[in-house]
Amino acid sequence: MDRKKFNRKYLWLLPLLFVAAVSGCWLFSGTWVIIYAVDKEDIDTSEHFHKFTVDLTKESVWQDHKDDLDNIEDVAFTFKLINPFLSPATGQVYVSSDSTLSDSAAVASSATIILDGITIPGGDSIHVTMAHYYDLLQNFETLRGLVKSGVFTAYALVPAPLAIELRNVVVVVTFSAGL
Fold first, then answer.
1. pTM score, two decimals?
2. How distant, in Å, are the alpha carbons of 84, 96, 148 from that of 110?
3. Is 143 helix (H, G, I), strand (E, B) or coil?
4. Pairing verdict, β 69-83 and 124-128
5. What CA–CA distance (Å, rounded) separates 93 from 50?
6. What CA–CA distances, in Å, run from 68 to 28, 86, 126, 179?
């Protein structure tokens, strides 16, 4: 085979090789989802104060990719709130790396609010779905940093004299990692 014909015949490969070399990390990365269900027994509850620790480091997906973690793309909480009282209840959800906060005042002064404006009608319940969650979300960058560390504590607060029940808590984390 003539060398000139060989060079022209495979010349189309050069742009492909260039793209592969420049974007190699895109070709060898992936997106993963961790669905972390919080056991009812793992929620510390008092009348106006609920807390639970999310430990993603125990999840196999997290363990497999923790050293390659590039980007926390999304974090969502879903949960059900039950208000047994006749008056409507409002509440907030805070997050912190400190799992020792023990009352509403300490949480409000030391933790970061991520959900505000939650309202539960009297004698009713609501299910905060992912769609509803995004309407309430604040301080995503702080939440992202805590999720990247692997362990954080969430605190749900309801002002006195009302109380709620917190059930069916699920944390969904979507992240990408290079391989």
1. 0.79
2. 29, 8, 19
3. helix
4. antiparallel
5. 9
6. 11, 50, 37, 7
Tokens 């997050």 label which residue?
95
Q: Is the peptide bond before 15 cis (omega within 30 degrees of 0)?
A: no
Alpha-carbon distance 95 to 133, whole Å?
Answer: 15
Domain 29-178 is found in CATH 2.40.160: no
At which residue do the structure tokens 């990247």 appear? 148
Which residues face 90 on adjacent strands? Answer: 119
Q: What is the pLDDT of residues 120-149, one digit of tens each?
A: 899 999 999 888 888 899 999 999 999 889
Alpha-carbon distances of 86 from 122, 128, 158, rounded to whole Å: 4, 20, 15
3-class DSSP state of 52: strand
